[in-house]
Amino acid sequence: DRVAILAANCPEYILTFWACAAMGAVAVCFNGWWTRSEIEYGLEATNPALLVADSRRLARLEGDDPGVPTIVVEDDFADLLAFAPDADLPGTPIAEDDPIVLQFTSGTTGRPKAALVSHRSFISFALAAFVIGARDSMLSDAPPSAGGARLAVFPLFHLSGMQSSTVTSLMGGVKTVWPMGRFDPARVVQLTINEGITAWNGTATHIYRLLAEPDIDGLDPSQLTSVAIGGSASTPELIRATEERFPHLVGTFGSGYGLTESGGLVSHAPNDMLRDAPDCVGCPLPTVEVRIIDDEGSDLPDGENGEICVRSPLVMLGYWDDPAADEAAFLPGRWLRTGDFGRMAGGRLHLATRLRDLILRGGENVYPGEVEQRLEEHPAVAEVVVHGVDHPTLVQEVKAVVVLHPGADASADELTAFCAETLAYYKVPTIVEFR
Length: 435
What we know:
Helix content is 31%, strand content 26%. The protein is an alpha/beta fold. It has 3 domains: 2-94, Rossmann fold, CATH 3.40.50.980; 180-354, Rossmann fold (3-Layer(aba) Sandwich), CATH 3.40.50.12780; 359-434, GMP Synthetase, Chain A, domain 3.
């Protein structure tokens, strides 16, 4: 059975996920920014036996019955806990390759696809993270420290939020603090002080906003022993700004590469590797194999650019109910075609470009094709191209270049409002250029 979760980060979200994992159900993580049409699509595509939702997101259905039994976080969870306060976990036998989550990814040509990820993938990610942490600890000049706490700001509907920030942290016995509600830098700084948080992790946008928060002057810089940036590319400027605020962390920043379909991470580059090869994204993780292929599917020699293919225990089982997408995504032998372009050189992976033109806006993935498809539905639009443009804090912003039909009229505000009717806010272009 599948259990859909449509909620902001909250304890009930994590409890629902662990309940699903314990009894062999599949948690379906709906994007918390989805609009009504996107929620309806997710329900229809995955046919869950149960929906767990908070009232704010449930309200986007405008009073319509979601067509599935629903638990409202604010109203029903207390009753559940009172009904069975001492219930034991079920003794359900679970195999490593049983699915644990359905994780939606932005569709390259329209609707999002749901990647089916296994228990084996989650466990393998955690073990790989522990190996990376052990290496960093051995190379660090600082003595090992016990205790501490980790900040978790990634949305739980992202693989980085559930798999890395939640499951891996809790497997490691780390105190983890999730701010609830919309990201508020001042509140996060205060939580850091009050809860003794020693490790920050977030997207480049999160870290930009935290560094710009005036209240950060009240935080003792030495309290933080780690700042990790993921989910979107960091920049040399951001790393310099972070090192200026936390000078004791100079030389600790790493980099990596991964995608939802690969199970989160493919490679990791510690700081010493980046100093030698600043443009690399590291060596493949333990248990991860990487191939570079040409247009014919043949392996390319070291140093030549081609499509990156990955095989590992972390890789998704496949797309939910989409055999055509599976056929396109996998080569024989369970090699995942990432759609990204790069090369291997001396055991290190280098990214050249993305074949899929992905826009990374504040840690959220936006595929131009989905936005273009919506704009093409507007009667005034003849042609449209959507692409990413640089942004100082979001990393990228969404821009639409539009050609109107002869004699037609439409303003930028009209087109963005049209997009906002069916697309999550982060997909809506903030820049519209008419040609």
